[in-house]
Amino acid sequence: MATGFGIIGCGLISKFHARAIADVPGAELVACYDTVPEAADRLAAETGCKAYHSLDALLADPRVEVVTVATPSGAHMEPAVAAAEAGKHVIVEKPLEITLERCDAIIRACEKADVVLSTIFPSRFHDVGQLLKRAVDEGRFGRLVLGDAYVKWWRTQQYYDSGAWRGTWELDGGGALMNQAIHSVDLLLWFMGPLAEVRAEFALLGHERIAVEDVAVAALRFANGALGTIEATTASYPGHKKRIEIHGTKGTAIMEEEDLIFWEFAEPQPEDEEIRRKMAERKSGTGGAADPAAIGHHGHARQFADVLEAIRTGRKPLIDGYEGRRAVEAILAIYLSAERGQPVRLPLTADPQLQVRTVGVGNFVRSRTCQ
């Protein structure tokens, strides 16, 4: 019998969740819910699942064993916690939440209920990401010295105007970093290891009527001593492929979207030439560089399959709640560094000054919680 999925939040990303579920053997979309009843009705009509106009009603449906939370970023905690308390396994679209306190509430609820929790980072499941991670784990790069992530995308003003939650600290949790670049931040941490310190700047330069950054840069020091950078923007017309570079004393690899564009090591292995040949034949598109809907759902499908395997075997999913929390922590540290105008050390929970604060940085004057 197929495992029943329910989708909570029926906006743009829910369509990708629905397509991914349809592609996973042994999975079936059986229900959906949105605070806007018409949105749930539309998704149900498109997919053949049952639309609920009450979250409690969806969670009471015994057919729903796994829920995917696809609400705005700052509204993930409440439905995720409710689902865990109802005994449902939980998959949360990135970011896990927009503060560490809210991330931790989700993690605690899922641990207490003994249900699986996973944070959506589909890029980890793409072939090139798996290939780079394996090379790192095998020590092929030698000592890691430099890791860089570049997400130079384009979003129109209409994109931000299309939803009241977009471009807000309260529900979007941030701008180019928290919403768009978080996938690359996660990959960079996965490859390079945890951060020790960040120094950052951000600005609002290309858009109006939003409270968050559309340009951000950060200098990084990883716990292993390596350095790195993150550059993120939604104001770079016409939008460019996201790029990650990993450099070490014995090798370098560079990926753009799902393509490997450089792969060279001081100690070659027989499969290297075949890897380069296969990757040279691939030409992925620009992904979400200019259009948030121009992404594939295959990474989601692989991640959903991983979650089902974790449920079946009792192992942890590849990306659990703590992995999702790590990317959020890194981005909050970058924001805090930009606000303070000074380096910020990680982990953030070690800093007793992370309280509700009023700050002014460039075009920003706001109050927000960093823990």
Task: Tell me the β content.
Answer: 15-25%
Order of helices and strands: EHEHEHEHEHEHEHHEEEEEEHHHEEE
The description of the largest β-sheet is: 8 strands, mixed
Q: From the helix content, strand content and strand pairing, which structural class follows? A: alpha/beta
What integer value in Å does the Rg equal?
A: 20 Å
Folded structure, characterized:
The termini are far apart. The chain has 11 helices and 16 strands. It has an 8-stranded mixed sheet with strand order 13-12-11-7-10-9-8-14. A 6-stranded parallel sheet has the order 3-2-1-4-5-6, sandwiched between helices. Strands 15-16 form a two-stranded antiparallel ribbon. The longest helix is centred in the C-terminal third of the chain and has 20 residues, at 321-340. Helix 8 (176-192) packs across helix 11 (321-340). Helix content is 35%, strand content 25%. A hairpin with a 2-residue loop joins strand 12 and strand 13. It is α/β, with parallel strands linked by helices.
Brief digest:
The protein has 371 residues and is an alpha/beta fold.
Q: What topology does this entry show?
A:
Layout: E1 3-8, H1 12-23, E2 27-33, H2 37-47, E3 50-52, H3 55-60, E4 66-69, H4 77-85, E5 89-92, H5 100-113, E6 117-119, H6 127-137, E7 144-152, H7 157-161, H8 176-192, E8 195-203, E9 215-222, E10 227-233, E11 243-248, E12 251-256, E13 259-265, H9 272-281, H10 298-313, H11 321-340, E14 344-345, E15 357-361, E16 364-368
Parallel strand pairs: 1-2, 1-4, 2-3, 4-5, 5-6, 7-10
Antiparallel strand pairs: 7-11, 8-9, 8-14, 9-10, 11-12, 12-13, 15-16
Helix pairs in contact: 1-10, 4-5, 5-11, 6-8, 8-11
